[in-house]
Amino acid sequence: MKDIDGFTIAIVGLGLMGGSLAMAFKQHAVGRRVLGMDPNTAAVERAQALGAIDGFFQDVREADLIVLAMPVRAIAGWLITYGPALAPEQTVMDLGSAKRAIMAEMEKLDAQCIGGHPMCGKETSGIAAAEATLFKGATFVLTPATHTSQGTMHMARQLVSAIGAEPLVMDADAHDRAVAAVSHLPYLLSANLVNTVLEQNDPNARLLASSGYASTTRLAASDTRMMGDTIASNRDYIVRQIDRFQSALAHMREAIAAGDDDTWRVQLERAREGKRNEL
C-alpha cells in the first residue's frame, strides 16, 4: 500500500486548479514535498511565495506522484512526451475535464495511472485565483486505467479525502457523457447568451442586466483555452446535448409563438420541480 505521507508530489500546471491543489496539499500536510512546474515562470514564483510549493519540478523521475493540471490536450501531449520515461512504481494523475482522450494515453504507460476530475472551479483563472478550500465538499471523479493497482486506487482515494473532496469512481465514457450535460453544455449556453445580447447592441440591456443575467452568464468568463480543449475532446457527447437542448427550446418556442400557454407552462413547471428536487 502506498503511503502518501512520504511522497514527493509534483504538480504540472499552476493555474486555478493546480495552484489550489498545491495549497490544499500544504494546508492538509499531504506529502513530504510538493514541487511545481508551469510554462509561466511568474506562476511558479507566485506559488513559492505563497508557500504552495517547495521547489521547481525538473526531473520526471524525482516525483512519486505527478499531477497534471492543464487543458485536456496539453495533458495528453505531456503523457505522450514524458510518460514513457516514468518508472512502473511512479504514479501519474490528471485533473482534466474530459477523460477518454487522456485515459487512452495513460493505457500505454508502464507507470501507475489514475484519471481525475474534481467537480469544482471558478470562472476566474490563474494562480491568483487559487484557494486551498476549492475542493472542499466537491465530488472528485477517479477513473482507473486497466493496469491501475488496488494500492494506487487506495492512495488516490486517500489523497482526495485528505483535501476535503468526495471520491467517486467512474469510467471515462460514463464521465464524459455526464459532464457533457451538466458542465460542458452549460458553458456553451452561457457563452451564447452573452453573444446573443451583444449582437442586439441594445444599450438598455446593459443597464437592466441584474442578478439573473449575471448568474446565468457567469461561466462565459471561463478560460477559453481550457474550455476549448474540453469541447474538442468531448465533441460527440456535447453535440448530442446541444441537439437535445435545441429540440427542447424549439418545442417551447413553438408553444409560446402559438399562444399554447399550457404547453410551455408545463415545461417550466417540470424544470422547477426538477431543480427543487436537486436541493
Walkthrough of the structure:
The protein is 52% helix and 13% strand. 39% of the residues are buried. α6 packs across α10. β2, α2 and β3 form a beta-alpha-beta unit. It has an 8-stranded mixed sheet with strand order 3-2-1-4-5-6-7-8, with helices on both faces. The chain is an alpha/beta fold and 279 residues long. It is elongated and about 65 Å long. It folds into 2 domains: 4-170, Rossmann fold (3-Layer(aba) Sandwich), CATH 3.40.50.720; 175-278, Orthogonal Bundle (6-phosphogluconate dehydrogenase C-terminal fold), CATH 1.10.3660.
Going by CATH, the architecture of the largest domain would be 3-Layer(aba) Sandwich
- The CATH class designation of the largest domain is Alpha Beta
Net shape: elongated
Structural class: alpha/beta
Strand order, main sheet: write it out: 3-2-1-4-5-6-7-8
Average pLDDT, all residues: 95
The end-to-end distance, rounded to whole angstroms, is 38 Å
CATH homologous superfamily identity of the largest domain: NAD(P)-binding Rossmann-like Domain
Question: Can you tag this structure with a few keywords?
Answer:
8-stranded mixed beta sheet; 13% strand; alpha/beta; 279 residues; 11 helices; elongated
